[in-house]
Specification:
Elements: H1 6-24, E1 42-47, H2 54-61, H3 64-67, E2 71-76, H4 84-88, E3 94-98, H5 100-107, E4 112-120, E5 126-130, E6 146-149, H6 155-166, E7 175-178, H7 186-191, E8 197-201, H8 204-212, E9 215-219, E10 229-236, H9 237-242, H10 244-263, H11 265-276, H12 280-283, H13 299-311, H14 320-324, H15 327-330
Parallel strand pairs: 1-2, 1-3, 6-7, 6-8
Antiparallel strand pairs: 3-10, 4-10, 5-8, 5-9
């Protein structure tokens, strides 16, 4: 077990700020030119509360969506899995969250389209956390235990399953328990003793350490899932086909927000403090994703997620052929 080294992360963040200061004023400062008027101006984006989606919150805060003719309402959700049913019913236009639930739904016959990539896994951005008094001090100690997650068919179950497998433990020996409150609720529930460990994303890893003294049992950016693509912006295929100009306008604004997030650490810290209502000492020391991708969705990146889902038992073997042939992933990505 290792204690959360907040001061070290803060020092790293400060160094990044210094390095990026010279380019942040030039890169991402000018909003992308608006394109054709969108078919639908009012859209709802369901989003998990995590630093991975800083590009979304920056685009909202800085009027980048408005410049593209969009009025975006961001609806907080605990996990992408929790909103899929509403998305298929047309109650939500776009979801911002883990690819895992969408790949599983696509393999089972649903039709979704990945509009843009949101974030890539980096050290300290996803972790398994335990209480300071926990008797679980190694990954092996999780066998037969309950683990709190934001969603049972999510990036959390995938990353934890990969970790357990790397330590010779079958993921089937643990029980994943989803909390409807998502990441904000998990640190408190962990204190109540409902689970042996909890899966957290930043900034809630840092918040758990500072508010409760909880400790990182294992950083999940390791082994086969190192630098794995984590989150993206997803719509149904039907919605995208009915609103191609709206989708394009959304992508333009998101990419501008991503550019700003890539080159201005202080902007990411400020927007997370504003949206997650966390104290500045948390957002100042939180770890950031490896990158906020910009540009067309890269099939090879998403294929890594699908392959890992198959390898670690998050996706059933009945889908093995279509995953290995790449048909599931290709059906989710449009050429631009």
């Amino acid at each position: 077990m290792k204690a959360r080294s907040s001061w070290l992360v803060a020092l790293s963040a400060a160094a990044i700020m210094i390095i990026s200061a010279g380019c942040s004023s030039a890169i991402g400062a000018v909003p992308a030119d608006p394109g054709p008027a969108p078919e639908e101006t009012d859209i709802t984006v369901a989003a998990i509360p995590a630093v991975d989606l800083a590009g979304l919150y920056i685009a909202q805060d800085r009027g980048l969506f408005a410049r593209q003719g969009l009025h975006v309402r961001i609806e907080p959700i605990p996990s992408a899995q929790s909103v899929i049913a509403d998305q298929l019913k047309g109650k939500v236009d776009i979801s911002a969250g883990s690819y895992v639930a969408y790949i599983a739904a696509q393999a089972a016959g649903a039709r979704f389209r990945i509009l843009a990539q949101a974030s890539t896994l980096a050290p300290n951005t996803r972790a398994l956390v335990v209480t300071a008094r926990s008797r679980v001090t190694t990954v092996a100690g999780l066998a037969g235990k309950k683990i709190g997650v934001n969603g049972v068919n999510s990036i959390g179950t995938l990353l934890v399953s990969a970790l357990l497998s790397a330590h010779g433990i079958s993921p089937a020996t643990v029980r994943f328990i989803a909390d409807p409150g998502g990441f904000p609720a998990l640190p408190g529930k962990l204190q109540d003793g409902e689970w042996a460990a909890a899966f957290l994303a930043e900034p809630y890893i840092t918040a758990a350490g500072q508010q409760y003294g909880e400790q990182v049992l294992a950083d999940l950016d390791q082994g086969a899932v190192t630098n794995l693509p984590v989150d993206g912006y997803v719509s149904t295929l039907a919605w995208t086909q009915q609103h191609p100009k709206t989708a394009a306008a959304f992508i333009r604004a998101i990419e501008q927000g991503q550019e700003i997030a890539n080159h201005d650490v202080s902007a990411v810290q400020a927007i997370m403090a504003q949206n997650d209502k966390l104290p500045p000492q948390v957002t100042a020391s939180m770890a950031l994703p490896a990158t906020y991708p910009v540009g067309p969705v890269v099939p090879a990146n998403i294929q890594r997620v699908a392959a890992a889902m198959l390898e670690f038992g998050v996706l059933g073997q009945r889908y093995a052929t279509q995953v290995r042939q790449g048909t599931v992933v290709r059906s989710m990505i449009a050429s631009r």
